[in-house]
Structures are given as structure tokens and as C-alpha cells.
Amino acid sequence: MSLNKQPRDTYRPQSADLEVGRASAAGMYNVYQGGLGLVWADWDAAQKVMRAGRGEVPIAARENARFAARAAAWAARAYGIEQVLDIGVSLVEGIQVPTVEEAVRGAVPAARVLACDNNPVVIRHAQAWRGSPDSGYEHVFLGDVRAVEQILSHPELTRRFRRDRPVLVALVAVLHFVAEAEDPVGILTRLGEGLPEGSVLVFSHACAPEADPAAAAMAAGYENASSDLTFRTEPAVAAMLQEAGWEVTDPGVTDVQRWAPPGERYRGEPSPSVRVVGAVATRPRVGGRAESRARAARSERRP
Ligand SMILES: C[S@@+](CC[C@H](N)C(=O)[O-])C[C@H]1O[C@@H](n2cnc3c(N)ncnc32)[C@H](O)[C@@H]1O
């Protein structure tokens, strides 16, 4: 298996991330974890966020990455899934983190693992360094979760994934870069509707109480970056998944430091001032109980 290079004619950088001096979500996340980021502005903006987070941002970032790898590996094995899509693949240069692709391929060696990101520089990095035959991505492509249908119908995905087999989607620490006006519930709903039955979601999201001053200060660090950061409350994150028709499995929506597969225990380094919550959720069978509940919740929301 090899990582195919994206053909030149389909590769169109379309974001302002390439602007010199503009921080990106991926670059800042890399700095939180001890990397250098992509540009100086990543380092600069990341310092602001880390100061506002009272030193806990690196802990939360590390634990989030550990959650992604742990939950994806467990879910792939537990649900017997061999098709994995990692949305928001980010950078791993200069840092020691467990990666989704290595963890999944360690748990299910036959898994085909694809990834996408909306940052073209991140795509170039992943294409160059994360495509090893036995533990890497089979292919990475440019894709924006706000246009989730385009990701699911991307030719590189449709020619590799079978429509009649479930897919494990990792959407980890990405949806907090989607503003309310961009309809995060709609994105999660369309993601579920576009996937085969039996598909599974590994999900995480930055979390804070309403009008929390520290969260506002952290979000301010993203003001000049390529994406804004939107904290949501823990109940709001759980409601988003439910409303979109995803059925959250045990132990529910919980801090990434505490998420463990059913019957197991995990206690990571705590970061009580900087919370990221995670969950594993299944796409219910069409017409199933959770789907009817989700439909009811959606129609209640409509004016
Ligand atoms: C905080 S990093 C999380 C990386 C990885 N999923 C993890 O949890 O370790 C967020 C990643 O999502 C990407 N991203 C942000 N908004 C996105 C969007 N609308 N569509 C796809 N990727 C996005 C960023 O470029 C970045 O690589």
C-alpha cells in the first residue's frame, strides 16, 4: 500500500493558510504539543492561548491526541471496521504523539486509513511523511468538513472504500473550528446520513461553561488565525451528537482524560481549566430508535 500523491491538476490551495504570517489551527496545535508550527505566527498565537489556559493547553492537546488514537484503535477492533477516515489530520512533526493511523493499523492491520484536512500545507506534510505501507495513511486529500458530502464523495475515497461496509470516522478536535452559523449539527447529521450502516464516529470537542473568561481569552488567541475557536458546553456537545442522530456509547461524552472503552479504566493527566470532551458514537440503523429521536429533536428545533 502506498500513499498516492495528489495529482497536480486536482490540487488547488484555496485557503489563506499559505499567507505568510497567518497562524493556523494545525500549526498552533503542533506548538501546544512541543512542535514548531508552520510559521512564526503559529508560535506567537499559541503562546497567547497557552497563557490564557494557565499552562494546561499542552496537557489537553496531548490527552486529546491520546484519546483519538486510543478510541479509534478500540472502535476499529471492537466494531470490526477496516475502513477509516480521519478528518482534520494535523501535523505530527517535532512531537511525540500516538497517531490515529498507527494506532488503527496496530489494532487492525488490514485497515485502509484515509485522511483529509482543509489546510493544504497539512496535506503536503501528511503526503510526504505519513504514508508508510504498514502504519501510515493510504491516502490524504484536501477536504473541508463544512462540505462533508464532498469528502464522502471524493473520488480517492469512493474508489477505496466499499459502500456496503461501515466506516470509522475520526472527527477529533475539529468541530470547535465550525461556528454555529456554519451548522455543526447539520454537518454531523449529513455525515451520519452519508455513511453506511454500522459506521462509527470518534469525536472530541473543546468545552467550557457559557461566558467563561478564560475560554474567551483562549478563543481570542485565534482571532487572526485561519479558523475561529468556538467553545461549547458539555451538554451542548452531547446534544449536538444526539440531535444529529449519533448514538453515544458508554462511557458517554466525557473528558478525554477519562474516556476508556467499556469495562476499562483510563486516567490521563488532568487539565481542569482546559477541557476537551470525547465520545464514541454509532450511526443507528435507518429507522431505528435513535434515528426517530434525532428526527423528533430536529423537527422541534425548526421554527
Ligand atoms: C486541533 S487539530 C486536531 C488534529 C487531530 N484530529 C487530533 O485531534 O489530534 C485540528 C485540525 O483540523 C483541521 N481543520 C480545522 N477546520 C477544518 C475543517 N473545516 N475541515 C477539515 N479540517 C479542519 C485543522 O487544519 C487541523 O489540522
Written overview of the protein:
- 37% of the residues lie in helices and 13% in strands.
- With 303 residues, it is an alpha/beta fold.
- It has one domain: Vaccinia Virus protein VP39 (Rossmann fold).
- Strands 1, 2, 3, 4, 5, 6, 7 and 8 form an 8-stranded mixed sheet that branches.
- Strand 4 (168-172), helix 8 and strand 5 (200-207) form a beta-alpha-beta unit.
- Helix 1 (25-32) crosses helix 2, helix 2 packs antiparallel against helix 9 (213-220) and helix 3 packs parallel to helix 4 (100-107).
- Residues 1-14 and 287-292 have low confidence and may be disordered.
- Residues 25-26, 29, 64-65, 68, 87-88, 90, 117-119, 122, 144-146, 172-174, 177, 227 line the site of S-adenosylmethionine.
- S-adenosylmethionine binds at residues 25-26, 29, 64-65, 68, 87-88, 90, 117-119, 122, 144-146, 172-174, 177, 227.
Could you give the topology of this structure?
Blueprint: H1 25-32, H2 40-52, H3 57-78, E1 83-87, H4 100-107, E2 112-117, H5 120-129, E3 139-142, H6 148-152, H7 155-158, E4 168-172, H8 184-194, E5 200-207, H9 213-220, H10 234-243, E6 247-248, E7 254-255, E8 275-282, H11 289-301
Helix pairs in contact: 1-2, 2-9, 3-4
Bound molecules: S-adenosylmethionine.
Query: Helicity, in percent?
Result: 25-40%
Terminal CA distance: 50 Å
- Provide mean pLDDT, rounded: 90
Q: Which residue ranges are poorly predicted, with pLDDT under 50 across at least 5 consecutive positions?
A: 1-14, 287-292
The tally of domains stands at 1
Features:
eight-stranded mixed beta sheet, 303 residues, disordered N terminus, binds S-adenosylmethionine, alpha/beta, Rossmann fold, 11 helices
